[in-house]
Design brief:
The protein is an alpha/beta fold. It has helices spanning about 40-50, 70-75, 95-100, 115-125, 140-155, 170-185, 195-200, 220, 225-230, 255; strands at about 5-10, 15-25, 30-35, 55-60, 65, 80, 160-165, 185-190, 205-210, 210-215, 235-240, 245-250. It binds adenosine-5'-triphosphate.
Length: about 260
């Protein structure tokens, strides 16, 4: 499944937020979006997962214009994790994960054996099997995030749009979730704050600044000290890690290096 966004513009109350955005994600590619707070990452993803409607521009999924997809058709193809997981879900964890199966079913169709296995497997992947019967409302922020990830895994879509999917997770679960997502072989577009995580997992990265695409390229091309300084106004030391063979960024804050 591939995505193409062409010349997308979006405004909130006549205030232009996204300016002429064109991006593409190839089939099976893992693409990150990085950028400072307020640069427009979430707004772009919301336009892509149809929570917002662009002012102008086009979005294509496998060459088909988005406007020509029915809602259920999109839900079979596109799994989404938004930024806000404080949803008022008064349901058990396994019921929420089961919701991921609904695009694949008819109205009022119950869970088959195959659905139950998919749900169980999704819970296992995010380490939430033990909490399957717990009420979602009373979970910690990170546990809620893992449940919503399990829901999206149970949806079994070819394309995932993720808005900082691990921002509430401890480092073990961050790596575990990204390993799981990477292992799916799905097409992924994800906003990521942690530059080292982006470097580890992304094939390609778009950098956003002030509502525009500032640069795009491989992690090696994007993560230079110069680029990071231009976008985030910080000093860094960047080198290729001998074990991961990925670019690793060490932050050099003023109070520590002086
Ligand atoms: N509902 C809204 N109404 C008006 N302006 C909004 C709304 N939501 C976001 N904005 C503004 O749009 C701009 C882009 O916000 P967005 O959330 O897309 O940034 P972001 O890059 O995802 O930031 P962060 O890294 O903080 O999550 C910001 O200036 C923000 O204040």
């Amino acid at each position: 499944m591939k995505l193409q966004v062409e010349n997308l513009n979006f405004s909130y109350n006549h205030h232009k937020i996204l300016k002429d955005i064109s991006i593409h994600v190839a089939n099976g590619e893992f693409v990150g979006i990085i950028g400072p707070n307020g640069s427009g990452k979430s707004t772009l993803l919301k336009n892509i997962y149809r929570a917002l409607t662009p002012d102008t521009g086009s979005i294509y999924l496998d060459e088909k214009n988005y406007r020509n997809f029915k809602v259920k058709e999109i839900a079979k193809k596109l799994g989404v994790i938004g930024q806000d997981n404080s949803l008022p879900f008064d349901f058990a964890v396994n019921e929420i994960v089961a919701m991921g199966r609904s695009p694949h079913k008819k109205l009022f169709e119950g869970d088959k054996k195959e659905d139950k296995e998919i749900i169980q497997n999704a819970l296992k992947k995010v380490d939430m099997e033990e909490m399957a019967e717990r009420n979602f409302l009373y979970l910690s922020g990170g546990e809620k995030q893992r449940v919503l990830l399990a829901r999206v895994l149970s949806q079994q879509t070819e394309f995932l749009v993720l808005d900082e999917p691990t921002n509430h997770l401890d480092i073990h679960h961050q790596l575990r979730i990204f390993d799981v997502i990477k292992g799916l072989g799905a097409t992924v577009l994800s906003a990521i704050h942690d530059l080292n995580i982006a470097s580890l997992y992304c094939d390609r990265i778009y950098v956003m600044k002030n509502g525009s695409i500032y640069k795009s390229g491989t992690p090696e091309e994007i993560f230079t000290s110069e680029n990071i300084n231009e976008v985030f106004n910080i000093k860094t030391d960047v080198r290729l890690h001998p074990v991961t063979k990925k670019v690793m960024i060490t932050y050099l804050p003023e109070s520590i290096i002086n």
